[in-house]
Amino acid sequence: MEFTHGSYPTPLGDDGVTALRGVNGAALTSVTSAPRTARLGAPAIPLRTVTRVGSDGAPVIEVYGELDIVTAGPLREVIESVAENRCPIITVDLAGVPFCDLVGLEELVKAADRLASRCGRLPLANPPSSLRRLLQVTGLRRRFHRVVGGTA
Fold first, then answer.
1. Alpha-carbon distance 80 to 148, whole Å?
2. What is the tally of structural domains in the chain?
3. What count of other Cβ atoms lies within 10 Å of the Cβ of residue 48?
4. 24, 111, 116, 145: which one has the fewest Cβ atoms less than 10 Å from its Cβ?
5. Is residue 8 part of a domain?
6. Residue 10 is assigned to a structural domain of this protein
7. Is 78 left (phi over 0), alpha (psi -120 to 50) or beta?
């Protein structure tokens, strides 16, 4: 969904967060990025998120980059920010995530639990095969409303 009429980008702070706001001031799309340090011998892939409105009208958070101990906190902040708008269902699209460690997985589980406590859900879309397998083996897959491989 693209918003052009009456929309303008608004910087929200020095933390790299920008939102596209509509005429009524509601955030329609937001982009965040989190710097990260390189792991030994591996190039750093910073975390970037884009929040958009899905085809069903619910928010979709697209995640790009590695989800690990360094970037899990910024993702938590994005999910909490979207949830503050009383959105009962927030889909997290992980198609752009090449790597997710246990801290990243833990953050996703905690976010799903926080939403569930408010009668919400956190479906996952397009998780990498390694994360999909980890969800299956650990039994954590059931903590999410659905885990889909197609586009959200």
1. 22
2. 1
3. 17
4. 24
5. no
6. no
7. alpha
- Residues 112, 122 contacting (CB under 8 angstroms): yes
Task: Provide the CATH number for the domain around residue 135.
Answer: 3.30.750.24
Calculate the alpha carbon distances from 14 to 10, 32, 66, 114 in Å: 12, 11, 22, 27
DSSP for the chain, please give it.
Answer: ----TT-EEEE--TTS-EEEE-TTS-EEEEEEEE--PPPTTS----EEEEEEE-TTSSEEEEEES-BSTTTHHHHHHHHHHHHTTT-SB-EEEEEE-S-B-HHHHHHHHHHHHHHHHTT-B--EES--HHHHHHHHHHTGGGGSS-EESS--
Report the distance separating Cα 47 and Cα 98, nearest Å.
Answer: 11
Domain extent at residue 87 = 16-33+45-148
The Cα 85–Cα 87 span in angstroms is: 6
CA distances to 39, 52, 125, 138 from 62, in Å:
23, 8, 9, 24
Which sign does the torsion angle of CA 23, 25, 26, 32 carry? positive
